[in-house]
Amino acid sequence: xxxxxxxxxxxxxxxxxxxxxxxxxxxxxxxxxxxxxxxxxxxxxxxxxxxxxxxxxxxxxxxxxxxxxxxxxxxxxxxxxxxxxxxxxxxxxxxxxxxxxxxxxxxxxxxxxxxxxxxxxxxxxxxxxxxxxxxxxxxxxxxxxxxxxxxxxxxxxxxxxxxxxxxxxxxxxxxxxxxxxxxxxxxxxxxxxxxxxxxxxxxxxxxxxxxxxxxxxxxxxxxxxxxxxxxxxxxxxxxxxxxxxxxxxxxxxxxxxxxxxxxxxxxxxxxxxxxxxxxxxxxxxxxxxxxxxxxxxxxxxxxxxxxxxxxxxxxxxxxxxxxxxxxxxxxxxxxxxxxxxxxxxxxxxxxxxxxxxxxxxx
Length: 362
What we know:
- The protein is an alpha/beta fold.
- The protein has 2 domains: 28-147 and 290-319, Rossmann fold (3-Layer(aba) Sandwich), CATH 3.40.50; 149-289 and 324-348, Rossmann fold, CATH 3.40.50.2300.
- 36% of the residues lie in helices and 20% in strands.
- The chain is built from 9 helices and 15 strands.
- The strands form 3 sheets. The chain has a 7-stranded mixed beta sheet with strand order 1-3-2-4-5-6-14, with helices on both faces. A 6-stranded mixed beta sheet has the order 8-7-9-10-13-15, with helices on both faces. A two-stranded antiparallel sheet has the order 11-12.
- The longest helix is centred in the middle third of the chain and has 20 residues, at 178-197.
């Protein structure tokens, strides 16, 4: 395993509150008894995308329910800065002055909004406000949140190699952006680590690492997965939002036809999304980033008067912000135990996962 330095560190706040998810049952709810309202603008895809939008919204909903806050999400007609600015403005005008935005595409919109709406608070997940030049400017009414995706990808890679033991793995990414790339690089390092240290023989060929280019093309995800499975791939790590949903659907179709096909989920525990009969699922495990927890924590911090404005925070293995699900029905007890032991070493800094591309595929 190539060793590197974990990118980004936690800034000024220990994120320790652990809680479950709510469910999306509409765009508004809450008693309205609090002094502020919580809004969210979705990124590409739907609010029930089984991934980034849904995870963020569930965190918002959980906080809103516990704290009795009005909450509302708006879906832009497009994914340009102007589209995002319009919905941010609509939320603000409706009194929703605590606004959560998931995804790097919001960077320039939040850069402008934090000055335009000085009495509002903004949470930008997986991005940092900038003017389009990459130079982060996080002002006092904004918090920027990142995740150590390479660490959760690493643990998922180890678990996958231990469970599959030998054969071929593949990766389908959405857009080729840092968050998705880190999932890929971490996963490959996890497989490599298991091969070198745990007697597994799982390989990843270059032609089986593909970025589709979007997060909402379900059909394309199914087609890419079908091609990989036809090439002999046993398991696919799909870090691609709606594209990943397509891969999951393809795997379910194959399993129902008597073939073998596994998917590694992403962002949230996607086990239920892979169920094809009774409680049987094609999801081997999931590389999780606790998006719901990040959204929940920031709303709670604002309610408690502790909003960490001006800060850039990272959820990683050290603060339990990333990992694989606590329950993995498709992993053996032996695999789970070994992954838990490795997770402890990762948390203690005994294992370091590179957050950048290295000699991962030969």
